[in-house]
């Protein structure tokens, strides 16, 4: 797993504040999945600020950890980035966010974080790798159209970085004097391993097909044919979707 490859627990322990509890800002937090994954790895008391524009998701956010105190902030990251208390944070984190943002938005976020000298943890950023086994004619077409669809404006400052986001973030941080480490955190869906994995693979097939058709309606017939053949193969197929985790801290 990526946490092991990045030695995430040891890295987090090294970032622990000396005289205060952790102050963590979770961007695009949704209902708190990133909090539930990361909080058990953090030593000591924690104060989490979960930031999202979806009131319903924020209302569902919770953690069972006694040492993690959580607050929520309903905020539009596209318009109100300067309202975040990053200067008082010890860690800024996000999951499945970087590939949705524009280059200008990413530069603004990282500039504020680097000025505050705050540590960063970005998980599950799509990097463009996608591999099916067995392969089918149509895989390359759908992958190409999906990648183009990923670069559409997702409401965060312009065209999304998509799979270029992890490498772009790493370059900006290193240029700003940060120590950066990255590692793969791929999704691996084996349709033969059980109903849950099969259902997730089928959902991915439909999501990829819908995005490809939206990106290029003229290819809809070929894409829907691929979709039907992929569903037929799903109980015996695997899908690997490439993701990258990134951690960064200011050089001391």
Taken in chain order, the helices and strands follow as HHEHEHEEHEHHEEHHE
Could you state the CATH homologous superfamily of the domain at 2-128 and 154-186 and 244-250?
A: Vaccinia Virus protein VP39
Task: Give the helix tally.
Answer: 9
Sheet with most strands = 8 strands, mixed
Text of the CATH class of the domain at 2-128 and 154-186 and 244-250 = Alpha Beta
Overall spatial form:
globular
CATH architecture of the domain at 2-128 and 154-186 and 244-250: 3-Layer(aba) Sandwich
Give the overall average pLDDT.
93
In CATH, the topology of the domain at 2-128 and 154-186 and 244-250 is named Rossmann fold
Classify the beta-strand content into a percent band: 25-35%
- Count the strands? 8
Our Rg estimate from Cα atoms comes to 19 Å
Account of the 3D structure:
- The protein has 252 residues and is of the alpha/beta class.
- The protein has a domain at 2-128 and 154-186 and 244-250: Rossmann fold.
- Helix content is 37%, strand content 25%.
- It has 9 helices and 8 strands.
- Strands 1, 2, 3, 4, 5, 6, 7 and 8 form an 8-stranded mixed β-sheet that branches.
- Helix 5 (103-116) links the parallel strand 4 and strand 5.
- Helix 8 (195-215) packs antiparallel against helix 9.
Write the layout of secondary structure elements.
Elements: H1 2-5, H2 8-14, E1 22-27, H3 33-38, E2 46-52, H4 55-59, E3 68-74, E4 91-95, H5 103-116, E5 119-133, H6 139-150, H7 165-175, E6 178-184, E7 187-190, H8 195-215, H9 220-233, E8 238-250
Parallel strand pairs: 1-2, 1-4, 2-3, 4-5
Antiparallel strand pairs: 5-8, 6-8, 7-8
